[in-house]
Amino acid sequence: MYGKAFAPEYQGTLTTLSVNSSLVDVLSEGTERLREAERSGRPDEAARCGLAVAEAHRRLGQVRDADRAWKASYRSAREAGDTAAMAWALWSGGTLARQRGAFPLAWRLLGLAAELGEQGGDIVVRGYSLAGLAETGRIQGDYEAVGRLHEQLLAEARRRGEARHTVWALEGIAQMHRNTGEYDKAYTLFEEAAEIAERAEDRRGHAWALRGLADVLSVRDKDTERALELLARAEVTCRAMNLSSALAYNHKMRGNVFYRAGRYAEARDLYELALEEFRAMSEPRGEALARLGLAKSQAHLGHDRAETAAELADLARVLERSGLRHAREMVARTQAEFGLDAEAVR
Questions:
Q1: Proportion of the chain above pLDDT 90, given as a percent
Q2: How much is the pLDDT for 4?
Q3: Burial level of 181, CB count in 10 A (0-12/13-18/19+)?
Q4: How many angstroms separate the CA atoms of 297 and 279, rounded?
Q5: Which of 88, 130, 209, 225 has the most CB atoms at less than 10 Å from its CB?
Q6: Angle (deg, nearest 10), helices 325-337 and 123-140
Q7: What would the pLDDT profile of 219-234 be if each residue is shown by its tens digit?
Q8: Which residues, at least 6 apart from 39, have a Cβ–Cβ distance to it below 8 Å?
């Protein structure tokens, strides 16, 4: 049995904030409470409020502000001698590093966060940090290494009845099944995640689950209209909560759905929109995926063959350097599909 979803990253005087609070509201209240804590000389409270500020900036795609905020939160936590708060700040920094495509830094910060969480006796930040490590490996395409960790974290979340983390783990495992072609397994897991998230009032988790279901319906069942309907529902949540990254991925997925349906002009427009959004928030993985979709759509619309080959070759180099194995394989398949693999290396 799962209780109502909660947001453990909203701490101190901000515990009244909901998991579904608008990020603009979180940032406003968090900044106000942070200033109060700083004025009253309370580094412990400044660390906790600074965490919410850092996370709001990160999820709004404000990378530089997020970077400054998590580091300030860590310094305040260290001044207060609060090991658990230091762990939370490192978790935020590690999550930001993954979002920016700085995977070695993400591994380092999230690993330290897990260690400090254990030392500080905070099982929640330890779990979130391990989940961050698992997600980092999954995004890089190292499914064998992190698959077991996802399953372990899912079991722990189920045991504690923690809805939000259960939903996260289900969606991560579902995504790995989807990427390896096990569409039925993926759909079942995304469906369970959506049901749990809806009952627990976890609107963010629900929006991501709807995106996953739309993807499977599109690629497995060729059900374009149903997929677009689910993405439209998810977009309402993304806009209501100011979920910039989730909204950009929603638009990218809508491009995928149009592309699979052979509606290349509509796909191109969505990929262009998503690309602009990813670049605005400095999210290189999303940017690369949007570039790939855009190149494919334009190729079908008669774009110059040499320019398409050059774009795919550049994408391959970018992804090779960044360590995004699954995305790199997608580019290779696209080069082969269009007969551009040989041209790319001339």
A1: 84
A2: 84
A3: exposed
A4: 19
A5: 88
A6: 20
A7: 999 999 999 999 999 9
A8: none
CA distances from 102 to 64, 95, 107, 189, 318 (A): 14, 10, 9, 29, 13
From the list 240, 331, 342, 243, the residue with the least C-alpha distance to 290 is: 331
Asked if 143 and 173 count as a contact pair (C-beta separation under 8 A), the reply is no
pTM: 0.90
SS3 170: helix
Give the residue ranges of the chain where pLDDT is below 70.
Answer: 1, 341-346
Q: Say what the pLDDT of residue 343 is.
A: 52
DSSP track, 223-260:
-HHHHHHHHHHHHHHHHHTT-HHHHHHHHHHHHHHHHH
Name the nearest CA neighbour of 168 among 178, 159, 177, 158: 158
Q: What is the model's pLDDT at position 208?
A: 96
**Nearest of 24, 78, 22 to residue 46 by alpha carbon:** 78
Question: Given this model, what pLDDT does residue 346 score?
Answer: 43
- Alpha helices per DSSP H over 120-202: 123-140, 143-160, 163-179, 183-199
Q: What's the first-to-final CA gap in the chain, in angstroms? A: 59
Residue type for 246, please? A
Q: Could you tell me the two tokens for 127?
A: 């779990």
**DSSP state, 62?**
-
- Calpha distance 93→186 (Å, rounded): 30
Residues in the chain: 346
Q: What is the mean pLDDT of the chain?
A: 94
- Residues 138 and 216: their CA atoms lie apart, in Å, by 18
Neighbours of 272 (CB within 10 A): 17
- Structure tokens of 43? 């580094």
Number of H helices, E strands in the chain: 17, 0
